[in-house]
Design goal:
By secondary structure, the protein is an alpha+beta fold. It is built from 14 helices and twelve strands. Helix content is 39%, strand content 21%. The chain has an eight-stranded antiparallel barrel. A four-stranded antiparallel β-sheet has the order 9-10-11-12.
């Protein structure tokens, strides 16, 4: 993503200008990555180059149905979340998507060239998928994203300069939740680049406000980009959830406990057993293997020079937090809708993250906003299950 464009290679969606029906202020432009409604003039020669590069890329691209799974490793050095605090503009880049303003652009091609010592990125995206998801305006002229990357400063440029965001607290939060709710453990997550994780999380909070769905999106992204981890996906993933539930019901192990024994190993052990055995018999055969695998995991953890989670308090893995501590999906949906109806002014408008914990006959709710990819606490509620009553917590 890189390109210092003398006169702004505008928004990928120049059509937004025609939709806004507002006067254009050529001296008050916003990032091309942010879907700006600004229509500043574009340098003609650069436009011709960009069009040529885009056409060349599209000739070799796969069909839209295939690009959903296509990863562009040319983008590896700029994957992450980027922000310009002065203009309050933020976007995220993964190997497949560009995300900004709660909208996802599916990448279809990239062209990277060396220009004056910086990498120049021309990133094409799929207008058809975008229009299908968000609607097509009356007039449109989709353009590629064009940016320059300064490796020494670790910044992206078009007519603005974007800094790479970092947030250790959010990284810990996401890893902690993943290790407690998805079939992956903290040791495996050491292999995932922090910038990748933050970009996945930014995408997830743009696509959903449900924590389980957000974690599932992040898990899916990791499974694609980190194939060496051999994470369970598709049918194996669904089968493992049933296997884990079966083991939980017939043992003292929680979901996060089983993660430390490595979900794929448990899946393989289970599928190798006699299908005629009942659940309890199967679990009894698996328990010695699970116990041994967990012991080996914690031995490696104790010897590891890199902390698995920097000893963050409240870790799902260490505190045995798991899905049983959360209300079921139906109740979570009811609570979310109730919050929106009764307290619409108290919650964030976008990038909402709900964290719910079941405690006896009530549910404790914490609402966050994933603003500029910093997880910021906004408000808390307590839901009384029996009385169906929601109470806002006061500080």
């Amino acid at each position: 993503m890189k390109k210092i464009v003398p006169l702004l290679l505008l928004s990928p969606l120049l059509f937004l200008a025609s939709c806004d029906n507002e006067p254009t202020n050529e001296t008050n432009t916003t990032s091309s990555m942010e879907g700006s409604s600004t229509t500043s003039p574009t340098n003609t020669s650069q436009t011709e180059v960009s069009t040529t590069e885009t056409n060349q890329t599209q000739e070799t691209d796969t069909s839209p149905s295939e690009t959903d799974e296509q990863t562009f490793h040319e983008l590896d050095e700029i994957i992450g979340v980027w922000t310009n605090e002065v203009e309050d503009q933020t976007f995220a880049v993964t190997g497949r998507d560009y995300i900004t303003d709660n909208k996802k652009y599916t990448i279809t091609g990239t062209d990277v060239r060396d220009e004056n010592g910086n990498d120049n990125y021309v990133i094409s995206w799929d207008p058809d998928l975008f229009f299908e998801e968000y609607g097509e305006p009356k007039s449109s002229n989709p353009q590629p994203f064009i940016y320059d990357y300064d490796s020494e400063q670790d910044t992206l440029h078009n007519y603005l300069t974007f800094q790479r965001k970092t947030d250790d607290e959010q990284i810990h939060y996401v890893k902690d939740k993943l290790a407690g709710n998805e079939p992956v453990n903290l040791e495996q997550l050491l292999e995932v680049d922090d910038q990748h994780l933050l970009a996945y999380w930014y995408k997830a909070t743009a696509e959903s406000e449900d924590l389980d769905e957000q974690l599932a999106i992040v898990y899916q992204e990791i499974s694609i980009d980190y194939s060496d981890l051999k994470l369970l996906t598709d049918e194996e993933y669904e089968q493992y959830l049933s296997i884990a539930k079966e083991i939980e019901d017939n043992s003292d192990y929680s979901f996060s406990d089983l993660n430390t024994a490595l979900p794929r190993d448990i899946y393989n052990w289970y599928t190798d057993l006699n299908e005629d055995d009942n659940e309890k018999e199967v679990t009894e055969q698996l328990l010695p293997k699970i116990k041994e695998a967990r012991e080996q995991y914690f031995e490696r953890k104790d010897k590891s020079e890199q902390p698995y989670l920097d000893e963050v308090e409240g870790s799902d893995e260490d505190s045995k937090t798991n899905e049983a501590d959360e209300p079921d999906e139906e109740m979570q949906e009811h609570i979310r809708e109730k919050i929106k109806e009764e307290f619409p002014e108290d919650i964030p408008k976008d990038h909402i993250v709900y964290d719910m914990e079941l405690e006896d006959d009530r549910v404790n709710i914490r609402v966050y906003e994933n603003k500029e990819f910093n997880l910021q606490y906004q408000v808390g509620f307590v839901y009384d299950i029996e009385d169906d009553k929601l109470t806002k917590q006061t500080t």
